Every structure is written in C-alpha cells, then in structure tokens.
Task: structure prediction
Amino acid sequence: MIVGSIANLDNQFLKKNLYSEQHLCLFDPQMVNLKHPVELEEFSRVEHALVSPDGRLETQVDKLLAKKGFARRVGVASRNFLTIRRLLIGRKLLCIVPKRFAQSEMDNHDLKALPAPIEVPDFDIDLVYRKAFRADEKNLWLRELVSQVIK
Result:
C-alpha cells in the first residue's frame, strides 16, 4: 500500500480517496514578517524554498504568478519535504507546503503558516493498493485501519 498523491496510476492498482490537501506558506516568523492576508507583491519579494521531487525549479505556482504579472525567486530547492524545516529555520525564506505538513511543523517548531495569496489547487491524498488484493481479508483490514488513522 501507498498513501500519497499518485498521478497516472497503473491499471493493476486501485485507490481510495482519504482527503483533499490544501496549501499554506510556511516560514520562520523571526526572519520573515508576513501578515495575513499575504499580498502578492510581498509574497513575490521574499525568496522561496521549493520542494521539487523531479528537480524542476518551476511549478504551477510560477505559472499562476506569471498570469498575474509576478514572479518569485527560488533560492533553494529540496527533493522532499523532510528537509524543508531545516531550510526555513533562521532564514528569510518561505515555502508553499501541504496544510497538514505545515500544521505538524508549527506544532513541533517555531514556524508559522499563512494562506498563499494565490489559489494553489488542492490535491487528493489516496490509499493505493494492488487490485489483486482488493478482497484479501488482511489487506481489507489494513486498508480500513490506515483510513481510520489518517482521517
């Protein structure tokens, strides 16, 4: 089983939607002074950290900003979310991250999150499993348990 946002799922797998994820701007409030609501100009002026699993430094956020006549500066990128905290603490950076990730980081560290000034599309988090195991009793039990814990 996999829990995540998986595009182009192979036909040997099935998925069950767990929830839809939103995005927030995560930052160190001792280094970055953002007020709610965040203005697009201010958002564009602050250097960004970027999570890019594929290594690209341009995302849908950049396309949305360009449509509004703005651009952001990406100062640093990481291939995964686990390193973002270390990149943000003590630096003048902000990063658009999933809401649940931001909440966890705020609970455990002195970071702050605010809604982005642009509409970043939500994405679905699914439980993905092999079609061959859809009726397997143990697999059914585990899928139900994982679904309950995550919800």
In short: The radius of gyration is 18 Å.
